[in-house]
Amino acid sequence: MLTVARTQELLDRFRGLRVLVAGDLMLDEFLWGNVSRISPEAPVPVVEVTGQSFYAGGAANVARNLAEFSQGVSVMGLCGADEQGRMLERLLQEAGMDVSGIVQDPERRTILKTRVVARHQQVVRIDRETRMTPTAEQCGALLARLDEMLPDLDAVILSDYAKGFLTQRFVSALCVGAARLGRIVTVDPSPRNPMLWEGVTAVKPNLKEARAAAGLSDDAESREAGAALLGRWGAGMVLITMGEQGMELFRQGAAPYHTPTRAREVFDVSGAGDTAIALFTLGLAAGATPEESAELANHASGVAVGKLGTATVTPQELLESASRMANP
């Protein structure tokens, strides 16, 4: 069990860590409202909008979670040279992040996901997106920037939403550079963008993604998927998130480690995986054991799903969660 004292020790180390998040950047829009009637035009609720919020989403939401704990967060990815792209960069800069790795492309449209929420429930999600695969010229510039950044980083998180940013060329070059410098690289993968993750420190799929990546049935056991993916991906570790069943950690030469869910209430699972990869990576970079890092990720995810929207978790909330487990 992760003690309160150990949690505080790791939190103190987090502040000085430098972490880069590279992946598919998005802008999340939330329309908040009330429902009091059904539309006469179709059997759908009429939402009376009472508010609007914007958040950095996708890979940028991983960065948002990191920024609650560390002052050295950088972001790399593509967005459009449009109003949404400018808002996304502004949100990240206001949170104290380095956005020098973001390329604004006037030929692209920033990915925008709009969620309509009424009475604490998501009514509908509207996606406006196109694939954002870097051109050869953009990929070269991004890799050059990566070479400049890597010596000053403690860890890199690859956040893949299968929107085109993470290519095998980019990933392979990053892994070679990170391995040469002994840097931690973790991955939140997408089965819709099959990649070779050879040489990364850890990969964190959810159970559905793990089964799909391993070519297993929808009712396959997590341990079967974890064992298969350790061999297939060539990663040092695989952390499978399993919702209400918690998380299970697999690594070469060690027995699987299961940590049960720490969630008290579940309001919204949006972004919980982003929270998990952020805290798992911070734990590893701070010198925590893989098991302690999995516990940190589990505690943080348990807090995140108790909030509406793509929420982040604070150090105080993480400490309180660890305290509840230590003093049930």
Structural commentary:
This protein is α/β, with parallel strands linked by helices and 328 residues long. Helices cover 37% and strands 28% of the residues. It has helices spanning 4-14, 59-67, 83-94, 136-149, 168-181, 207-214, 222-233, 272-285, 290-304, 315-326; strands at 18-23, 25-38, 45-58, 72-80, 98-105, 112-118, 121-128, 155-159, 184-188, 202-203, 237-241, 247-251, 257-259. Strand 12 and strand 13 (257-259) form a beta hairpin. Helix 2 crosses helix 8, helix 4 (136-149) runs parallel beside helix 5 (168-181) and helix 6 crosses helix 7. The radius of gyration is 19 Å and the shape is globular.
Topology of this structure?
Layout: H1 4-14, E1 18-23, E2 25-38, E3 45-58, H2 59-67, E4 72-80, H3 83-94, E5 98-105, E6 112-118, E7 121-128, H4 136-149, E8 155-159, H5 168-181, E9 184-188, E10 202-203, H6 207-214, H7 222-233, E11 237-241, E12 247-251, E13 257-259, H8 272-285, H9 290-304, H10 315-326
Parallel strand pairs: 1-4, 1-8, 2-6, 4-5, 8-9, 9-10, 10-11
Antiparallel strand pairs: 2-3, 6-7, 11-12, 12-13
In short:
The protein contains ten helices and 13 strands. The protein has 328 residues and is an alpha/beta fold.
User: What structural category do the secondary elements indicate?
Assistant: alpha/beta
What fold name goes in the CATH topology slot?
Answer: UDP-N-acetylmuramoyl-L-alanine:D-glutamate ligase
CATH class: Alpha Beta
Beginning-to-end CA distance, first to last residue = 12 Å
Biggest sheet statistics:
9 strands, mixed
The CATH homologous superfamily is called: Ribokinase
- Total domain units: 1
The CATH architecture term is 3-Layer(aba) Sandwich
Instruction: Give a count of the beta strands, DSSP E runs of length 2 or more.
Output: 13
Helix count equals 10
Listing every helix as H and every strand as E from the N terminus to the C terminus, the arrangement reads HEEEHEHEEEHEHEEHHEEEHHH
Strand content: 25-35%
What is the overall silhouette?
Answer: globular
Q: Which strand order spans the largest sheet, edge to edge or round the barrel?
A: 5-4-1-8-9-10-11-12-13
Low-confidence stretches: none
Radius of gyration based on Cα positions: 19 Å
Helix content: 25-40%
Please tell me the overall pLDDT: 92
